[in-house]
Design brief:
CATH architecture of one domain: 3-Layer(aba) Sandwich
Helix content: 55-70%
CATH topology of one domain: Rossmann fold
Largest sheet: 6 strands, mixed
Number of strands: 9
Number of helices: 24
Oligomer: single chain
Distance between the termini: 39 Å
Radius of gyration: 24 Å
Structural class: alpha/beta
Strand content: 5-15%
Length: 520
């Protein structure tokens, strides 16, 4: 091997790290990697002497600019359910403050909340989360007072680098959160941006927000209704509390996207909620990211979406949720695939136990026509949350791309048996038709027409069914889907399922109608 390393694999081998680690270092720690133009997978190279200099300057040191931290759920020493939500909320708020720090990798809540430190080796937790530091904490409430104890522990050797204890009136809880975040920043030798505005003086509203946040990340029909009730109750108690407005918007969008709620009923409310959230708190990056999703997928205002995402990334450069939203809902529709893959991989690195992050990375790899990596990412997602049907759908798409037709169709039929939603029926007609089967698409189209007699069917469901049948009515129905602002239509530029009609002038007209057509 010469003085020059000509791939991520060679660079990783030289540094003794995994490929994903050095890709993350290139983004977060300025690892000297050079890029050459060309295609959706830009070539890279590195010079050994430059890498050696970067290492000598401390580039690989977890105590410096590239420090990483996971905030574990705070232990509840009082025992009550309300106290548990209170502790979870405090830890969640500390995470939200820390993602604002430049140069600090903060493991996302989905992954860090899967652990607590009781009876666990901190080195094991650190290895699984990819974190150099753990913040452990405990909360004890006594009537109107609260005691919060925290300690910062190195996952390398278990050394306690810092600890703090805070005895406060409950009304000071947001000052405690800000003080903890500042103390951690000082311990890690990074600078903290200006603190956030206190969220709400109403602790009942605060606990409702925290409970809604926990429930909403389970993505089931049962928890969808419970989470919505929590957010709406929090809003009723304190309409000026921004976070439950954000939580409601995010919940309703995913509910509409995955067939848990009717889009016509929830999307207008979701729009209203995200705008209200930003009016009340402009400084919350994730809310700007959700606004970016709405502007792109629902308004086809891609320039406006870009502005919203830029603000989101400015406010929360270390937010896994913002990175994966930007990758899948903004970069992929615009066919900026190389950047989408980078950001999706960063999101997975920051949230390694998130099934959604792995699943959307898998879809981005499907779009990038990288079948083996797509299968691996989607298989991981299914393993993390086997009960979420859409992850099986993602997995089926990856298997089809890998030419494992029988295995892929098994995943799709399994979803169909569990979830007889119109989009599933239409999607199954599409994939069976593309796999060379003729009878199933006809039967599934007839089923879809029967469903339409009693309930609203998204136009994209019929569009997919007609594509599976090779019927030109696919163009008419996708045109209707675009008029209805069906988010599925924004998959047209990217997903391999639509290759059979790609290049048809009517296909290009559909893309142009969404502002996604770029002349070759």
């Amino acid at each position: 091997m010469g003085a020059r390393l000509n791939s991520w694999k060679e660079i990783a081998a030289y540094l003794g790290r995994e490929v994903r680690t050095v890709q993350r270092w290139a983004q977060a720690r300025h690892l000297p990697v050079h890029r050459l133009p060309g295609g959706d997978r830009p070539r890279v190279f590195a010079v050994k002497a430059e890498l050696d200099g970067w290492l000598s300057a401390g580039g690989g040191d977890s105590h410096g600019e590239g420090a990483s931290i996971a905030v574990l759920p705070f232990l509840n020493l009082a025992g009550g359910e309300e106290d548990r939500h209170f502790g979870d909320g405090l830890a969640d708020d500390v995470i939200n403050e820390l993602v604002r720090l430049p140069g600090l990798r903060v493991i996302a809540r989905t992954s860090s909340f899967a652990f607590d430190s009781r009876g666990r080796d901190v080195r094991e937790i650190g290895a699984k989360l990819g974190a150099g530091w753990l913040l452990e904490g405990s909360v004890r409430r006594d009537q109107n007072r609260v005691r919060v104890s925290t300690q910062l522990v190195s996952t390398k050797d278990g050394v306690h680098a810092w600890s703090g204890r805070y005895d406060r009136e409950l009304t000071d809880i947001f000052a405690i959160q800000d003080e903890i975040a500042r103390s951690i920043a000082l311990a890690l030798k990074v600078s903290l941006r200006s603190g956030a505005t206190p969220a709400t003086p109403d602790l009942v509203a605060y606990n409702l927000w925290v409970r809604g946040r926990t429930l909403s990340q389970q993505y089931t029909p049962e928890t969808f209704g419970e989470a919505r009730a929590c957010y709406e109750a929090a809003i009723a108690r304190d309409p000026s509390f921004a976070r439950p407005h954000f939580g409601l918007a995010d919940l309703l969008f995913y509910g509409a996207q995955f067939g848990i709620a009717e889009p016509q009923e929830v999307i207008p409310r979701a729009r209203e909620a995200i705008l209200t959230s930003l009016e009340l708190d402009e400084g919350f990056g994730e809310a700007h990211a959700v606004l970016g999703v709405f502007r792109g997928l629902l308004d086809y205002d891609w320039a406006g979406a870009d502005v919203a995402f830029r603000r989101a990334l400015e406010l929360g450069p270390g937010s896994a949720a913002t990175l994966i939203r930007h990758a899948w809902y903004h970069l992929v529709p615009r066919m900026q695939i190389a950047q989408a893959l980078e950001e999706a991989q960063q999101s997975v690195a920051l949230d390694p136990l998130s099934p959604m992050a792995h699943g959307l990375l898998g879809l981005a790899l499907v779009v990038a026509r990288q079948p083996s990596r797509a299968v691996e990412a989607c298989r991981t997602a299914v393993g993390l949350a086997p009960g979420l049907w859409w992850l099986h759908w993602f997995y089926g798409s990856a298997l089809l791309l890998d030419n494992r037709i029988e295995d892929g169709l098994e995943q799709f039929w399994g979803v169909y048996e569990r979830v007889r939603k119109p989009l599933i029926i239409g999607g199954l007609a599409l994939v069976t038709g593309l796999s060379g089967q003729r009878e199933p698409p006809r039967r599934l189209l007839a089923e879809l027409e029967e469903v339409a007699r009693t309930e609203a069917v998204p136009p994209s469901a019929f569009a997919m069914a007609y594509l599976g049948l090779g019927d030109d009515r696919v163009f008419e129905w996708f045109d209707r889907a675009i008029d209805a602002r069906d988010p599925i239509a924004t998959h047209l530029p990217s997903m391999p399922h639509y290759d059979p009609i790609r290049g048809d002038p009517r296909f290009d007209a559909l893309l142009a109608k969404m502002g996604l057509y770029e002349p070759k």
